[in-house]
Specification:
The two termini are about 25 Å apart. The protein is built from 6 helices and 19 strands. The model has no long low-confidence stretch (mean pLDDT about 90). With about 300 residues, the chain is α+β, with helices and mostly antiparallel strands. Strands 1, 2, 3, 4, 7, 10, 11, 12, 13 and 14 form a 10-stranded mixed beta sheet that branches. The chain has a 5-stranded mixed β-barrel with strand order 15-16-19-18-17. It has a two-stranded antiparallel ribbon with strand order 5-6.
Length: about 300
Amino acid sequence: MGRKRKGRDISGWLVIDKPAGPTSTAVVNKVRWALDAKKAGHAGTLDPEATGVLAVALGEATKTVPYITDALKSYVFTVTFGAATNTDDAEGEVIATSDLRPSDDEIEAALPDFVGDIMQIPPQFSAVKIDGERAYKLARDGEEVEIAARPLFVEALTLLERPDPDHAVLELVCGKGGYVRSIARDLGEALGCKGHVKELRRVWSGPFDVDEATPFSVFDVDEKSPDLDSHIQPLAIGLADLPQLRATDQGFARLKNGNPGQVLGTAEYGEEVWASYQGTPVAVGIYRAGELHPSRVFNL
């Protein structure tokens, strides 16, 4: 029998404004420690030097993480033209240079090729697994591996600002699995001038916006404190993209045991929905003829 994890049974979401420096895992571990939470995870990794929205799920909210990772996300990032790096960002080693600099019109003309359903090759320094090993570990050992292109949905890629000939600020709105570093790299290649990411900030992820995020410094403390609970948002926010139905008394009794239960409300047959009982989330599942067939049950 595994050792029971210590900590408080608290559930909900924390939206952290991650600073440059710590890894996403380090932020989650610090938040969990500061809250003395039994369980925590995050919905989408940010590179150590990236900033912005890091959605941290606590307790039963970890069951809703897929709905946030699958949602659209927005990134504002600065591309440096004239140099390619082995990491596709400013932390890496320069591996190629160019004296060419694109005009604003040339950048605008290139962006449509990166919108819609595209294929994207992740960076050599990424968490993609190659024969069971993380690509970044192989890259650190000096191995250059071939990483297969992966599908990515890009809703929008927009030029926001051109501070100087060497840089451009863009906004990317994309689905799950996107690498902003790859966008910068491939845009530089398309423009014939090379490129890499200088700065990157995630400004929103699904229902979570950086303007409503809590600075990580609030949780980067030396003492645990239940006063930090005031920053926790309801678990149901992670289900914002799904229709909500209400469980009947009998339906609630069945759903909490993992069985199909009666629900009230309107949904399409076969649609994924979630049910609440007296305002508390009960389960997520498939709607069929007045019943919810649960795939996830919340123990709240």
